[in-house]
Design brief:
Chain lengths: 91, 993, 417, 209
């Protein structure tokens, strides 16, 4: 598998570490145990198109959101996590 | 002296007759020529018997001339370089080559295990599932060892491989597999278009079937066209031709695996060179021009030595000038097989007969037969007479029912051709059936890949050239190269008329999978027993699981299954194709990652100094850390470690702790950020102060701990454990970039920037005063416990000083830029000499942390909560942080959890061991009363006994209770007392003093 | 048909024309007491135990392809019961005991070979962890031995003891561990279950659940029509999330690819099963002679049933580091299976929140060794509606309660288990 | 009370043996030169401060700092991209230090001293590219990785910063490699193994060229 890092360009799989589904959003402070449980433990585990977090730890250390198909391993898009390249957002 | 090459043809071939090479096979010396394979050289010497089959130990000869060979497997080389199951058909001959036949005893000609053939009526497919069950114990004792000894093929060397391997990356626009007409045409087109091209050819000579089959291209004899084409390609700087290189697999994103046999054609690799190299090739496009494999026809006696694929036979004749037989019969069901007759006649060999299963033979070949004076028999081969020494007579069932016999010493067989559909199918694609050629052809391929020529089912030379050329041009275009490709090479297409024929019924064993001895009747039996799915068929009979991966057997096998189960071949389908395309040495996949270079090694800044001191090193992750510093006369590690501990507790010592992860946390929101990742609060930490912090995973379990200091308003210096350094960095980056992108935080690893030493013991301050600039105030008031700030050192460099203690002693940690780490160790020795300074290693460090009751790796085991570790009070109730909510789940706050407690044997002389379990006193150990275990132990010089920490159910409520340490693995049982985990200076006076 | 050496000899005389199908090729009936989704080892074992232990014979096993086409047919065939945490320890030992009598139970030779499993250790910390685990095993009545370096050298003199990056210091041995012929396990259960009346229905893919007005599952929709069921059990590890989703359930499971490899067949080289403690590599040698080996999962969600090169290299590096004598042995085949990776690395055998639907899932890469035990306790659950005592901790709600069974201590990060 | 001498010791000091290594009787195909005396400062833009940092860097160095994987040569430093929002300032020892850069850059950026955290190796020679292909998964073809290209990548599972400097006087490409100090010796040996078949010329230099 090769992932096109939006910062570094196309790199081989060995430079990246997988975290998991990018869909669950961390509940805000004060969320219930049930909400946090859902976030931490339950997965759609989709067979098909998914969005996932990958870490370019062997390269620029950016966290990336990778749109990938779990049936074919084909990657359709890669974008930086919100805070990767945050120096460019409005202060 | 080597025997005469009795079967070497007088002229022709691509061998170098001026370079004679001696070699040995089964102890006998032969000679061959440069350019021979072991197989061609054996053929040239008239050797027919080369191996024994897997199950029945049947005598076998050479069947093919390529990597699909199922029979002619040898142990190549000797000693540590012995390579079992090496295909004689691809092994290049070199001076002094040694090969031995395998799977036979005592000799190839007289193999005792061939008695298995007598039991053949019982040893049918799957027989072992039905027997060997009684008595149950006999399986491991009797049956299995016997089966294992009989099974297997060659013998591995059994000692370390002395050769080296490496791995490399390559990148191109267009990757081409195969250098036959399609591959070369593709390379021409892509290269001319301006693309970067890599062409891999598994053979040592370029040309593929062109080398054997001849013909005319662009009006030129093939040999001339070939040399012109290779010259043109060689002149293109971005076209790379790799011979002895097999493309074996395709992985995601256009990554391909290839194996280059760099030096297998030599007795051993030259100095500094590798035996083989694994290539990871990244290609935008790939043209598979891997050709097709001729397939056998299944008939009784088809495994007799001397029965050979027709195309292989003409390869041996044309390319190697070696005659597999002198009087040859051909059994074919297609036009292509006849080319072997032409080749044989051209070489002056005799044709005994052609047995053609088709209703019609072309006029051209009919006239060839009459000119050559040999009969054309319409029908099929129904049996072969012969044995170890080869074919003698061939029985023919003629169309219409009559029988005939043909005397011959070789039988060429052509059942048609199977495109090499492996590469195109490795992404679980299933090839599709083409009726006109009665073969499976690629049906789609992994992204970026296309098959051309014979690999795509188009066998004619003209078609191969034009398809290959078009594929190469298109691939270059897709990769963004649009240079002028010029015109495609032109040649005529040969006729290819085929009447499918898979199996000729007859008496005697008819082999489908030669190597695994799977016969047509085995397939029928499998069907009878319900193993109709091709995957069941494969697994039940082992069809296609041999070292040739079914290249010669799979299609025939499933065709027979189709016939007996009344389905069509496409309905029956194929099994899943799996890489690698050819077997690849495990050593090549490892490359240089073996022995000491299995993984990288990290060295601390004072490593070489420690080595000079004679330190014993321990592996901690990738690190080498000084474990202890033995002194002359010390009888064991314990004595050294005890000395080091005493030296610290009584004076001063130092230890390189640079392996801790160190992270600079910068930014306006650095404090707020740390509040969210630690369970305790850091935003209120004063500049110039340090604090111990604990972080959880989001599931509420402890993740890591360490000391974090505030060096400036917007700058914290965070430390992690050695083990988790990289993972914590990744975790913090996740928090920063994904969870809390709104915060202004920058993270940098400074683990390698700083050499960090722990200096501990009552005389620490004395030592430091020697080395720190006198202007710095190191008094308890000027530098209180948990203080952290930059200081100047004598001699003009700056350091960071932290008043923190892991040992429980008055202690500091000092950081200097890493290149001064070595000097720091030397200067500490110098400065500390008057105080008896003692360097100590990780063992002494560990002893002191256990004495002090600090938790470490064995307690932070990924299942413990902060409260389990006795650190529950650190959990802030005033803020959100990672893991807070999940940490509150009922089972994680249950009162009966196993928590950290101190443990000491009631008998002070008793040694405590980690891993012993805790059982209530007076009870018989069982799953119901297994209340925990000892996590960490040490011999405490301070208490003069073994002590430890443990995780024990309700441990903290049971201080003082005597329980049982149960250690059946080591045959030990003894009483221990649960106690306060802080064995040493529980009030902490010493570290604050 | 009863298999024996005599039946084999008789068959040989008749040219093997009289053998019958190993299991009946059943056509689906309208209704079964229990329908099991998944014709792998677990599903078939469940059916057999339902019929043989619990007298429930009106059972169907539905398989979307051919039986054993999932992980039962693509694993590294290792059996062992060397687990360290309550919940796992007893269960895997139950399974081991069932392995030990499987062939006689089933009248089918699954080549259960107890030739020993050694987990090598390379550091004091690892030794201590194995000591803890081995003592747990002994306390639970399971055989375990802690080997020192001398013992390992004697048992496996071919390991790299001289110039290893991470020298071997010893190992944890379970002599009763070993291997079994994975396909034969499937066929054996199919053979025996079919003989007791269980319908094994291949090429029958479940496409949905039939629910009554209360939401209770009363059957399944399949590619071969609707089939009614008193209870439906799913044993489809690798696809659990997909099947559960048809009932509207989300599970604490991710699907990951685990690769495995086999070498060319060679004469006996390795006496036992072993795992490298300083890298990702475990290996045994099959009766046919191939080295069967594997390592870590690829580490990303996948249903593709194939992996990538970095892991393949990583595994071979581990192998070469451990025993550089395999350098010239050739890797013959590489394949990938879909692992039901749960959030704590341990399985789930429980009633689902949907009435009438029962879960057998989350086996991670440990499903093969669990086959008989899983079948036994799942049959118990289906028959009695209460968990078997040895599976009492494999509850679905343990994650919600915080009662994880996390042998590796990696938390809710399935690719690290 | 003696003043202590603070001898700076390179992480490669032990492993690096000047002279030739590997294949003999051929002209060395790979030259490896360690540069020992340099300052390396990591500059990380604060949140939302990319534009300010760009301005400040332009003012300080006279060229735009790289915001893509490039290495930019200034009159007295090399600015090497090291990740989103960050770059290295590499200069001769004591040229651009934390102290000298902070006034100019610390408002829009955080600075971190990495001078001791890396070893710096120059790699050239006719076989440099083919040797690097054994260690690096990235494409170093002259058209893909021309002069001025940089990459944050891994070699042998070890994080490195690799960039292509100006050609050597003999026209050969020069690759520069920053490797973490504690990994340096290990990667050095790996590199020697990879290069041995081509013949290696080994040297070190105190100063950045």
């Amino acid at each position: 598998m090769r992932i096109v890092c939006p910062f570094c360009g196309e790199r081989e799989l060995g430079e990246f570490t997988y975290l998991g589904d990018a869909k669950p959003v961390r509940p805000v402070a004060g969320a219930s145990e049930d909400e946090v449980f859902d976030y931490v433990y339950l997965r759609d585990n989709v067979a098909g198109a998914t969005s996932e977090y990958w870490y370019h730890g062997g390269g620029c250390r950016a966290w990336l959101k990778v749109a990938r198909n779990t049936l074919t391993h084909e990657i359709s898009s890669v974008e930086p996590a919100l805070g990767a390249g945050a120096a460019r957002v409005g202060a | 002296m080597a025997g005469a090459q009795t079967h070497r043809l007088d002229k022709g071939g691509l061998i170098d007759r001026s370079a004679s090479l001696n070699f040995r096979f089964d102890g006998k010396t032969f000679s061959g020529f440069q350019g021979d394979t072991l197989a061609s050289a054996l053929i040239a010497n008239g050797v027919k018997l080369v191996g024994r089959s897997f199950k029945y130990h049947r005598p076998r000869g050479i069947l093919t001339s390529g990597s699909e060979e199922p029979n002619a497997l040898v142990e190549l080389r000797t000693g540590a370089r012995r390579e079992p199951n090496t295909k004689a058909t691809t092994a290049e001959l070199y001076e002094g080559l040694e090969a031995a036949s395998q799977n036979r005893w005592p000799s190839l000609r007289h193999d005792v295990m061939s008695v298995n053939q007598l039991f053949a009526p019982i040893f049918v497919a799957g027989f072992y599932y039905k027997t060997f069950m009684w008595p149950a114990k006999f399986w491991e004792a009797i049956y299995e060892p016997a089966i294992r000894r009989a099974a297997g093929l060659g013998r591995a060397a059994g000692v370390a491989d002395p050769d080296h391997y490496d791995k490399a990356w390559a990148h191109c626009d267009v990757l081409i597999a195969g250098s036959g007409p399609a591959g070369l045409a593709a390379a021409l087109a892509a290269g001319r278009s301006g693309a970067r091209v890599i062409l891999c050819e598994e053979d040592f000579t370029l040309g593929g079937r062109l080398l054997s089959d001849g013909g005319t291209i662009d009006g030129l004899p093939v040999a001339e066209w070939l040399s012109r084409t290779l010259a043109e390609l060689a002149a293109m700087p971005d076209v790379r031709i790799m011979t002895r290189t097999t493309l074996f697999g395709v992985y995601d994103g256009g990554t391909y695996g290839a194996i280059e046999r760099v030096n297998d054609h030599l007795p051993s690799p030259p100095e500094h060179q590798v035996r083989q190299r694994l290539w990871r090739i990244v290609a935008r496009r790939c043209v598979v021009a891997a050709g097709a494999l001729e397939r056998p026809i299944v008939f009784a006696g088809n495994d007799t030595p001397g029965v050979m694929m027709a195309s292989a036979m003409r390869t041996y004749i044309a390319r190697y000038a070696a005659a597999p037989a002198k009087r040859i019969a051909l059994f074919t069901n297609n036009e292509d097989g006849w080319r072997t007759v032409e080749a044989a006649l051209g070489a002056g060999l005799q044709i005994a007969a052609v047995i053609d299963a088709r209703p019609d033979v072309s006029a051209a070949y009919r006239s060839l037969a009459s000119k050559g004076g040999f009969p054309v028999l319409h029908g099929s081969v129904s049996g072969v007479e012969g044995g170890k020494d080869g074919v003698r007579k061939i029985a023919v069932s003629l169309t219409g029912g009559a029988r005939a016999e043909v005397e011959a010493d070789g039988l060429a067989v052509s059942g048609g051709w199977n495109p090499a559909v492996g590469l195109t199918s490795y992404h679980r694609g299933r090839p599709k059936w083409r009726d006109d050629i009665a073969a499976f052809v690629p049906d789609g391929a992994p992204p970026g890949m296309v098959a051309a020529g014979a690999a795509n089912g188009d066998f004619g030379l003209g078609a191969c050239l034009s398809q290959g050329f078009a594929a190469g041009a298109a691939a270059a275009h897709d990769a963004g190269h649009n240079g002028k490709a010029g015109t495609a090479p032109v040649a005529d297409d040969e006729a290819f008329s085929l009447t499918p024929l898979w199996h000729v019924a007859g008496k005697g064993k008819a082999f489908v999978d030669y190597q695994h001895d799977v016969t047509a009747s085995d397939i029928e039996l499998a069907q009878r027993e319900g193993f109709e799915s091709v995957e069941h068929l494969k697994r039940y009979t082992t069809l296609g699981m041999a070292t040739d991966q079914g290249k010669t057997s799979n299609v025939a096998g499933l065709a027979i299954m189709a016939a007996v189960s009344g389905r069509s071949i496409p309905e029956t389908g194929t099994t899943i194709y799996r890489p690698p395309y050819v077997p690849v040495a495990i050593g090549a996949f490892a490359g240089h990652h073996r022995d000491e270079t299995f993984h990288a090694t990290r060295l601390t800044p004072s490593h070489h100094w420690a080595a000079e001191q004679g330190a014993v090193f321990v592996d901690t992750g990738l690190w080498k850390r000084a474990q202890w510093y033995p002194r002359a006369g010390e009888k064991d590690w314990l004595e050294s470690v005890t000395r080091e501990v005493k030296a610290v507790r009584g004076g001063v010592g130092f230890c390189d702790v640079s392996t801790l992860g160190k992270i600079d946390v910068h930014g306006r929101d650095a404090g707020a950020f740390l509040d969210r990742v630690y369970i305790n609060t850091f935003s209120n930490l004063a500049v110039g102060k340090a604090r111990y912090g604990l972080m959880l995973r989001e599931d509420g379990i402890v993740y890591d701990d360490g000391t974090t200091s505030r060096l400036a308003e917007d700058h914290y210096f965070l430390t992690t454990t050695t083990a988790k350094a990289g993972l914590v960095m990744q975790h913090l980056e996740f928090c920063r970039q994904v969870l809390f992108p709104e915060l202004d935080v920058q993270l940098t690893s400074v683990s390698d920037q700083w050499a960090q030493f722990s200096i501990a013991g009552p005389k620490t301050r004395d030592l430091l005063k020697e080395i720190v600039d006198p202007a710095e105030d190191l008094s308890n008031e000027g530098f209180p416990f948990m203080g952290a700030r930059e200081v100047a050192l004598r001699g003009g460099i700056k350091a960071r000083l932290f008043r923190i203690s892991f040992s429980g002693e008055m202690a500091f940690e000092i950081s200097v830029p890493a290149r001064f780490g070595d000097a720091m160790a030397r200067n500490l020795m110098l400065a500390g000499a008057p105080f008896g300074v003692t360097p100590y290693g990780t063992e002494a460090l560990g002893v002191m942390r256990v004495e002090k009751g600090h938790v470490a790796g064995p307690e932070l085991n990924g299942t413990t909560t902060a409260a389990d570790l006795g650190l529950g009070k650190m959990m802030s109730t005033k803020k959100d942080y990672i893991g807070r909510v999940m940490a509150g789940r009922e089972a994680l706050v249950a009162p009966d959890r196993q928590v950290v407690v101190g443990i000491k044997p009631t008998d002070k002389a008793r040694r405590l061991r980690s891993g012993a379990h805790i059982i209530p006193k007076g009870q018989i150990p069982g799953p119901g009363n297994d209340q925990g275990y000892v996590t960490s132990v040490c011999f405490s010089p301070t208490l003069d006994q073994w002590i430890g920490l443990g995780l024990v159910e309700r441990g903290r409520e049971r201080i003082g209770e005597v329980v049982h340490a149960h250690d059946p693995l080591r045959g030990e049982d003894y009483d221990v007392e649960l106690c306060n985990p802080v064995f040493y200076d529980p009030d902490g006076g010493r570290q604050r003093g | 048909m009863k298999y024996s050496i005599f039946s084999l000899a008789r068959a040989a005389l008749s040219g093997h024309k009289n053998w019958q199908r190993t299991w009946r090729d059943a056509t689906p009936k309208d209704h079964y007491d229990v329908v099991i989704i998944g014709g792998g080892g677990h599903g078939l074992a469940t059916a057999w135990f339902l019929a043989s232990e619990y007298g429930i014979k009106n059972v169907a096993v539905l398989e979307k392809g051919w039986i054993g086409s999932g992980n039962a047919g693509r694993n590294t065939t290792i059996i062992r019961s060397n687990y360290g945490l309550p919940g796992n320890t007893g269960f895997y030992e139950l399974s081991m005991k069932l392995w030990e009598r499987m062939e006689q139970d089933l009248n089918y030779n699954a080549m259960v070979s107890q030739r020993g499993v050694v987990n090598l250790y390379h550091s004091d910390a690892q030794r201590d962890a194995y000591a803890r685990r081995g003592n747990t095993m002994r306390i639970n009545g399971i055989d375990a031995e802690l080997l020192d370096l001398t013992a390992v050298k004697k048992m496996m003199p071919f390991l790299n003891f001289d110039n290893a990056r991470f020298p071997v210091q010893g190992g944890l041995l379970q002599r009763r561990g070993g291997t079994a012929r994975h396909d034969a396990v499937v066929w054996g259960y199919a053979h025996a279950a079919s003989a007791l009346g269980v319908d094994i229905i291949q090429n029958c893919e479940v496409t949905g659940f039939v629910r009554d007005a209360n939401g209770k599952v009363t059957g399944v929709e399949t590619s071969r029509g609707k089939i009614g069921a008193g209870k439906v059990g799913m044993a489809v590890a690798g696809s659990s999330s997909r099947v559960a989703a048809m009932a509207g359930l989300r599970l604490p499971i991710e699907s990951h690819v685990l690769q495995a490899f086999v070498s060319e067949a060679i004469k006996p080289l390795l006496p036992n099963v072993m795992t490298f403690g300083a890298g990702h590599f475990y290996v045994s040698q099959s009766d046919k002679g191939g080295l069967v080996f594997g390592g870590d999962i690829d580490g990303y969600n996948s249903y593709a049933q194939r992996g990538n090169m970095p892991v393949m290299e990583d595994v071979c590096e581990g192998g070469m580091a451990l025993m550089p004598m395999i350098g010239r042995v050739r890797l013959l085949r590489q394949w990938g299976g879909i692992m039901d990776m749960s959030m704590d690395g341990s399985p789930i055998i429980d009633k689902s929140p949907v009435d009438g639907l029962y879960l057998n899932a989350g086996w991670c890469y440990g499903g093969f060794k669990a086959t008989p035990g899983s079948g036994f306790v799942f049959a118990h659950l289906l028959a009695r509606d209460t968990p078997h005592e040895e599976a009492a901790k494999f509850r679905l709600d343990r994650f919600r309660r915080g009662a994880m069974i996390d042998e590796k201590g990696q938390g809710a990060q399935p690719n690290l288990h | 009370m003696a003043d202590f001498s603070w001898v700076s010791r390179s992480p490669l000091e032990h492993a690096l043996v000047t002279g030739t290594h590997g294949a003999r009787g051929v002209e060395a195909g790979v030259s490896l030169t360690e540069i020992r005396n340099f300052d390396l400062i990591q500059v990380m833009a604060r949140r939302g401060q990319a534009a300010e940092l760009a301005k400040a860097a332009m003012a300080r160095f006279g060229v735009a700092a790289p915001d893509a994987p490039k290495a930019v040569q200034t009159s007295d430093a090399t600015l090497i991209w090291s990740g989103p929002d960050q770059f290295f300032v590499l200069s001769k020892g004591s040229k651009h230090t934390m102290q000298t850069l902070a006034p100019a850059l610390s408002s829009p950026a955080s600075l971190s001293d990495q001078s001791h955290a890396r070893a710096l190796i120059g790699i050239s020679g006719s076989k440099a590219r083919i040797m690097l292909a054994k260690l690096s998964s990235i494409d170093l073809h002259p058209e893909v990785f021309p002069i001025g290209s940089a990459a944050a990548t891994s070699m042998d599972h070890t994080s490195v910063t690799l960039w292509r400097g100006g050609n050597r006087p003999d026209g050969q490409a020069l690759f520069n490699l920053l490797v973490f100090a504690t990994f340096a010796e290990s990667l050095w040996h790996t590199m020697l193994d990879a290069a041995a078949e081509y013949g290696v010329d080994i040297s070190h230099s105190e100063e950045l060229a």
